[in-house]
Automatic annotation (TrEMBL):
CDD domains: HisKA. Pfam families: HATPase_c. InterPro entries: HATPase_C_sf, HATPase_dom, His_kinase_dom, HisK_dim/P_dom, HisK_dim/P_sf, PAS-assoc_C, PAS-like_dom_sf, Sig_transdc_His_kin-like_C. It comes from the Bacteria. This is histidine kinase. It comes from Ramlibacter montanisoli.
């Protein structure tokens, strides 16, 4: 069963109103027949009466229309429509085939009791109108989808036209005056139901032009029949005039309405497209502009006004648009000599916009130039406000740096003994040399030369201790991510020197097989050393329980396919092949007291250097952890060094 479409209130009200009028009309006329009141039946003595069958049909049609308009039980509407359809069809068959089925007296020979001149038969136009109306209501109540309201609208238009003709041309051979009014009301109710079935987004249904054409055709046909019944000859001027006007006016009105619907649909589609574009630009914080270079004419979207923080009423001129580009790029955009032949420049980059209040915005600008048929240079571009994105990236970088620093500090405990030994050795030497120096100076005569040599050894040992402290400070200091050109071999040697005593204390034999040439990369020295330190300390811990075989650590470096590689190989307990990727997940650890952040932070650091870190099980015992990052070309290395030096001077 098909449901009537929701979402339109006035067609529902109109349909319900028509239904109530039909119910009242039928009930009043039936009451006139029961009470023998000719005034209610025929209004005036010279007019034809409304028969009992017609009055009862109006009553039933009104009930069916009311049920459908209020979305009530459809079986009630079907129950009311069936007898109306049967009576009207039989009545028209009596007229067409000159029969006397007695259907007009089914409710009694009322015209005799009321003493009317008319025999009380249903007029043919009334029978046809009621048959069409009841059939339409029955179809709606049973099988007809109201979404296809074309058939319903055509039926309603024709019935309305018949009713108007019957009401205006009152002849005994046609219908009573109030019968014509009732037929017109029923037709209007059908049209209202059909109107309600149109999609909510359409102000007028798509079938309206056809409905108008059908209504005009029905009106013309009914008027012609009325004129012919009234005694006019078919070739008389008035029937010909009615035929000509109806033939021309129907298609003209239908085509006019169709054009109006089409124009409205196009305007609505354009409005929806503009609203969608504005909403999409607002969500993505992207504004657009069009710039005609020779005239300086600029058209831009509302979102660009918001990005530039200017009112929508304020025009965006060349000077204001130039703030979206760096000065050199904007000069090139407007310079005809700088344009490629046949087109304009292509721009894709970021720029910082300084607002009058001191605030700063980061803009991503994409624009391309085109030339019109007249050779005029124009630019079409988009400006995206990426300030929030850059702020988020900065905050994420700070969190990563802090997380990496926490990981470095967490590894400090594992190096405590090694650090203490590294510092203790030069300090003990300084104490011993200082005592020797005092004895040499107290001798008689003082041994000045020996004391001088001892003082030099003190300076040497003090520098050794200072270097240890300096390496620790650089490794564990809190500072932002900085990119510089560095030798990965040298960074690896510094880490191994820091871990030397820890390796010895853990009874680990270690071997450094580093490349003979410098492996120059661009990166943060501290963070890359942290990766190497994490891998070395993990290897030491993995071999902590190994007994019965050598504890061997091999650190290798080399270059391959434009990448600098560093690998740390151990002979420890290793790991399961299925855990090769899980090892790098945050807080995943196989150690009882591990935090599970070392390898996760290491991979994050390597990926930030555009490289990758992976693990592989050895053919024998243990595992090998390797990371690779891009090598820096010699010319690029000089640029990075200059940039790094400038940053340090700043």
């Amino acid at each position: 069963m098909t449901r009537i479409a929701h979402g339109r209130s006035w067609p529902t009200s109109l349909a319900a109103g028509c239904a109530v009028l039909l119910i009242l009309l039928g009930a009043i006329v039936l009451a006139g027949w029961i009470a023998n009141l000719p005034t209610l039946i025929q209004l005036r003595p010279e007019l034809p009466p409304m028969t009992r069958n017609v009055a009862a049909s109006f009553l039933l049609v009104g009930v069916a229309l009311l049920v459908l308009s209020l979305r009530g039980p459809r079986w009630i509407a079907a129950l009311c429509a069936v007898p109306v359809l049967a009576v009207s069809c039989v009545s028209y068959a009596d007229f067409a085939f000159r029969l006397d089925s007695g259907i007009h007296e089914i409710l009694g020979p009322s015209y005799i009791n009321v003493q009317l001149r008319s025999p009380g038969r249903m007029a043919p136009i009334t029978a046809v109108s009621l048959a069409v109306t009841s059939a339409s209501l029955l179809a709606i109540a049973t099988v007809l989808p109201l979404r296809t309201g074309l058939a319903l609208s055509l039926a309603g238009a024709v019935v309305t036209a018949f009713g108007l003709v019957a009401a205006l041309h009152v002849k005994p051979s046609l219908a009573a005056l109030h019968t014509g009014v009732g037929i017109a009301i029923a037709g209007a109710g059908l049209v209202a139901l059909a109107w309600r079935s149109a999609p909510p987004g359409q102000p007028t249904p798509a079938w309206l032009p056809l409905g108008i054409a059908a209504g005009m055709a029905g009106l013309t046909a009914a008027l012609l029949r009325a004129l012919l019944v009234g005694g006019y000859a078919p070739s008389a001027p008035l029937p010909l005039l009615v035929l000509g006007i109806g033939t021309l006016l129907g298609p003209v009105l239908a085509f006019t309405v169709h054009l109006a619907q089409r124009a409205h649909a196009q305007a609505a589609a354009l409005e929806r497209s503009q609203a969608f574009l504005e909403e999409a630009q607002a969500l993505s914080r992207t504004g657009s502009f069009w710039w005609r270079v020779p005239t300086g004419e600029i058209t831009c979207s509302r979102q660009l006004h918001r990005i530039l923080e200017v009112g929508e009423a304020q025009p965006v001129g060349v000077e204001l648009l130039s703030q979206c580009f760096d000065s050199e790029t904007f000069r090139a955009l407007g310079d005809p000599a700088a344009q490629p032949e046949g087109r304009g420049l292509q721009v894709d980059g970021e720029h910082r916009l300084q607002l009058p209040g001191g605030a700063e915005k980061h803009l991503h600008v994409v624009a391309h130039g085109i030339r019109t048929k007249d050779g005029v240079l124009e630019y079409i571009g988009a400006v995206q406000d990426v300030t929030a994105q850059r702020a988020s990236e900065q905050a994420l970088a700070e969190v990563r740096s802090e997380f990496a620093r926490v990981a470095r500090i967490s590894s400090l405990g594992a190096l405590t003994a090694s650090i203490a030994h590294e510092v203790q050795q030069p300090l003990a030497a300084i104490i011993m040399n200082s005592s020797t120096c005092l004895r040499m100076l107290e001798a008689d005569p003082p041994n000045v030369g020996g004391a001088r040599e001892t003082a030099r050894r003190n300076i040497r040992d003090g520098n050794r201790a200072a270097e240890v402290v300096s390496r620790l400070r650089s490794l564990f200091a809190k500072k932002p991510f900085t990119t510089e050109a560095l030798d990965l071999n040298a960074a690896t040697r510094e880490v191994l020197a820091l871990c030397a005593n820890e390796l010895q204390r853990s009874r680990v034999q270690w071997q450094a097989d580093l490349a003979g040439e410098a492996l120059t990369v661009a990166g943060d020295r501290v963070q890359l050393q942290q990766v190497i330190l994490n891998l070395v300390l993990n290897a030491v811990e993995a071999m902590g329980t190994v007994e019965g075989r050598p504890r061997l650590l091999v650190v290798k470096s080399g270059r391959e396919d434009g990448l600098a590689r560093v690998s740390v190989q151990d002979t420890g307990t290793g790991f399961a092949v299925a855990d090769a990727e899980s090892l790098f997940d945050a807080f995943y650890t196989t150690k009882p007291e591990g935090m599970g952040i070392g390898l996760s932070v290491s991979r994050s650091i390597v990926e930030r250097h555009h490289g990758r870190l992976w693990a592989a099980a050895n053919a024998g015992p243990g595992a090998t952890f390797t990371f690779a990052i891009p090598l820096l070309a010699p010319c690029a290395a000089q640029g990075v060094q200059v940039e790094s030096a400038a940053g340090e001077l700043a």
